[in-house]
């Protein structure tokens, strides 16, 4: 039950992050890469589940997922 609640919360955060990212993207060049919030939410949720579904680490999971996606993008 906690897993579903956490993953749903991540999706809600992704929606608000998308609005903020959309406004920020208007000022960035096309070279910059920002992973889609739903991609970050999926990766963060996966990390959350794999680390034992411990609450209180949502921000760390989100930032780590974002950094991993950016690193993967830079490798290609």
Gist of the model:
This protein has three helices and no strands. By secondary structure, the protein is mostly helical. About 7% of the residues have low confidence.
Task: Give structural notes.
With 76 residues, this protein is mainly α. The protein has helices at residues 2-25, 37-50, 58-75. It has one domain. The chain contains 3 helices and no strands. Helix 1 packs antiparallel against helix 2 and helix 2 (37-50) crosses helix 3 (58-75). It is elongated. Mean pLDDT is 76; it is low at 26-30.
Please give a handful of descriptors for the protein shown.
76 residues; 3 helices; mainly alpha
Poorly predicted tracts of residues: 26-30
Order of helices and strands: HHH
* Helix content bin: over 70%
Question: How many whole angstroms does the radius of gyration measure?
Answer: 13 Å
How would you classify the helix and strand content by structural class? Answer: mainly alpha
Number of separate domains: 1
Number of helices: 3
- What portion of residues belong to β-strands? under 5%
Largest sheet: none
Number of strands: 0
How is this fold's topology laid out?
Elements: H1 2-25, H2 37-50, H3 58-75
């Amino acid at each position: 039950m906690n897993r579903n609640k956490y993953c749903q919360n991540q999706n809600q955060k992704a929606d608000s992050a998308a609005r903020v990212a959309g406004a920020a993207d208007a000022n960035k060049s096309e070279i910059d890469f920002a992973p889609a919030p739903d991609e970050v939410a999926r990766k963060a949720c996966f990390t959350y589940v794999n680390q034992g579904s411990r609450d209180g680490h949502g921000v760390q999971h989100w930032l780590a997922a974002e950094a991993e996606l950016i690193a993967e993008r830079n490798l290609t």
